[in-house]
């Protein structure tokens, strides 16, 4: 069962299984900011954990088969054969 946003159909099952790296660290940092009235100097520990997590994600390659560029290249190859 999908939801409609205006005339756009959104399938929530498609995005439910997507991996969300660093989500826990980001939520912890945002909660800390909310509790401390946006003073990030009080949330140094959460900020450092979030930065370390995002730095660790930089080295991981994305699945090329799911990107738009992969599909564009594949369709372009087939067209010129």
Automatic annotation (TrEMBL):
GO terms for biological process: mitochondrial translation. Residues 17-55 form the IMS import disulfide relay-system CHCH-CHCH-like Cx9C domain. It comes from the Eukaryota. One of its GO terms (cellular component) is mitochondrion. Signal peptide: none annotated. Coiled coil: none annotated. Pfam families: CX9C. This is IMS import disulfide relay-system CHCH-CHCH-like Cx9C domain-containing protein. It comes from Dichanthelium oligosanthes.
